[in-house]
Amino acid sequence: MTADSITVPETDDGIRVSAVWHRYARRGDRATVRGRAYTVYLIALFVLIYLVPVVYTASTSPALIAVGSPAGAAPAAWAIAVTVCWGAQLAGRFWGPLVIQPFLLHVFTSTDIPPASYLGTIARRRLAYVSTAVLLSACTATYLTTDLYRELGLALQGLAAAAGLSALAAVAWLWGQVRAVPGNVLLASAAGAVALAVTVIGRVAPGGGGGLWLVAGVLAAGAAVIGRTAFRSIPAIDLARLARESARASQAQTYALTGTLHHALDLYRPEPRRYTSALIRTDGTLRGHLTQGAIRALRTPGRAAAAVVLLLAGGAVLTLGAAAQEGRPALVSWMAGSVCVYLGSGWVSETWRGLRDELTLPPLYGERWGGVLARTLAWPVLAVTAGTCAGSGLALTTPWWPLHGESAAGTLLLLAGSLVLVLAARFLREMKLDLPLELLMPIASPLGDLSGLRIVAWQFDGLVAVVAGIGLISAVPSAPGATALAVAIAAWYVWSGLRRTGWGHRGLLTRLSRT
Amino acid sequence: MIAADRATVTLGETTLLAATTFTVMPGELWGVTGSNGSGKTTLLRAFLGSRSLTDGSCSVGGEPVDMAKPAHRRLVASLVEPIPVARDMTLREQVTLVAASWYGNAPEAAEHAGRIIEQLGLASLGERFPHQVSSGQAQLFSLALTFVRPAGVVLLDEPERHLDDHRIDLVAGLLTERAREGTAFLIATHEAALVEACDGRVELG
């Protein structure tokens, strides 16, 4: 028997794909017309109540960023384009445009229908949606923050660049999914190289080398080439990998829709693969707490490397921000550095999770074996401190080090306070369990029910805690005072984190002394 | 039809599948038996291309296994990994949808779906959703999703899972009937009734 000898009516692939989509579209809880109309109604409300006043205010206020000439805006446009391209590729690696419902994908991949027949249409439709969304976002952002639309000629150049950017973002998203790692590294490198080369050409060429028109042209041409190649790669896509991605995305979507985004993000953590017997010495005893933490971090080398980069960069930027004189750039640098350290603190260690489990689940380890806190916090605290300090050391070597800013002692105090604050925010985030029901209670305000904002803040509470905390301590004029406030805020975060795990107030000290 | 020639899978110093050689011809029902960890599922995955061999070869229809080829996907049906289901579609809708992926919107699609649902005793459950059936009924549903499509080769991993004796006999009867029509079967099983129904057996471990 061969494949040809199996009795199947010679039905056209397109008809078979249509039949599946048709039947799937008629399933039980499909989106209804009324449901879609309600979504449109909500979007219209959002636009009328929030967006229109903001746009009006922006149109009657001086621009935050003065663009100057189109040639002067080109380097910034290139930087944004490269960042968007890399971001889209990265997004495609985790959740690309070809991800569909696992059941549907299983139905299609179990047939002899070529993948392009059922994935091509989805890809084209989703790329059009994403392209439109990026175009609208880019135009809105530039309108709100720059004076790009003050005259017609400049506005047209800006629109063309935004259109090129949206096309590139969409096809890079597809490329990120359909191409393997070497192909993605190639595109990322090529994007960086082209941006650099065209920027240099724009600097030396008379008249800025075309300004934003050149940006738009190169982006559009690049998008056409990348898109053509990416679509040609769809027939050869790794279906087993796509099935895994779709299953994971489906599960993550369920978590996200039920308000537990942190569980959804957990699904995208890399699986440990290396040093499988390194935690135990040859004589059968367990290694020390620090070594255990380091080994567990190195079992996911990519994640650990990203953490090191973030801690070093975050430490440097944070130090520069804390050491600089007062002003918006210093505060932005301080906050950005703290956020980087916060992200790195999560990626550098797996033991945060162990701490949460030990605080919330029945005891697994003996209480006297080194203590819960020593066992789980030794490594992340040491690694984050060392990484941030190393980053601060790097900051001293940069030309941006402010010679006339805060004193060294003051900077050191602010750095220590920020570090404690960030670690406490990480603790608060890692102790998060399921969505508390009280967050669903409405919050009446003249702008409507604000409970949605509170839920969003809860989803990203660690980030909110870092940004709010740094914002508060930056308002204190003296370094010792700011550090004292940072420690107080950190203590409150830790207390809130412990309350999340269910540790009662009265027994807290007793339990901590036992462990 | 399907053949393994010294098919071996090792992972470091661990042997997941010792060198195995056999051939299953069209119309034959073969069982793979052995203790836990002896390599039954690994062998089936090797025929699906989801597990690479470290030595030897596996072939389907005389060609090396490559599920990227439409011809191989047309030939091989399997129930080795859990089948994802749509939580918002009834059992009958889902089985019919799989049939439609082969027969389009032709009446044959509904006929094939109705027949296999009937044969597996799911007729009274056809209007239920997946969460409304027991583990055994869910297993029969997975078998229906596998059998509703045409196939020359069928790979099954423990089809008796969660089934009572009566349903196991039902499944054994269906496998025998399909084999008589020319389908080649390779099933990993611990169930004596299914082993008895087999024309040949590969003993692992």
Automatic annotation (TrEMBL), chain A:
**Which residues span the membrane?**
37-56, 127-146, 152-173, 185-205, 211-231, 304-324, 330-348, 377-401, 407-427, 439-457, 463-495
- Tell me the keywords, alphabetical order: Membrane, Transmembrane, Transmembrane helix
Q: Does the keyword Chloroplast apply?
A: no
Cleaved signal peptide residues: none
The highest taxon in the source lineage is Bacteria
Entry protein name: Uncharacterized protein
Q: Which organism is it from?
A: Streptomyces abyssalis
